[in-house]
Amino acid sequence: MAHNQVIFAFSLDVAATEPFLQQYHVINELFLCMWDDAYGLHCNAFVHGGDMATHLREAHGIRGPDNLPVLCRWEGCNAPMNKESLTRHVQGTHLGIRYPCNTCGRVFTRRYGLEVHQINCP
């Protein structure tokens, strides 16, 4: 189990009927940064999900053009990608951030998907 994963101590019946108890995270939550430094030590800073790009830039030196190749240094990952994809990767893959529709409850992995959905959501 990942260190920043949440275990819910209630029945699945409650989780299915109460939208606020779903097992996903939202952008304004506080997360523990599990970025590994050159020595394999975790950052362990608390960061709001929406501030992750700033944190990666200021605390971990992720700077440069959007097409700069980088490796994700999140605990156990090492996935290669362009810098422009790193924040979205960390938020979606490692933090489990999702964007729920407040009208119908459908959940999206990207904010843009939610925005497009909301145009025609009943």
TrEMBL record:
It holds the Pfam family zf-C2H2. SUPFAM superfamilies: beta-beta-alpha zinc fingers (SSF57667). Residues 99-118 form the C2H2-type domain. InterPro entries: Znf_C2H2_sf (IPR036236), Znf_C2H2_type (IPR013087). Coiled coil: none annotated. GO terms for molecular function: zinc ion binding. Keywords: Metal-binding, Zinc, Zinc-finger. The keyword Metal-binding applies. This is C2H2-type domain-containing protein.
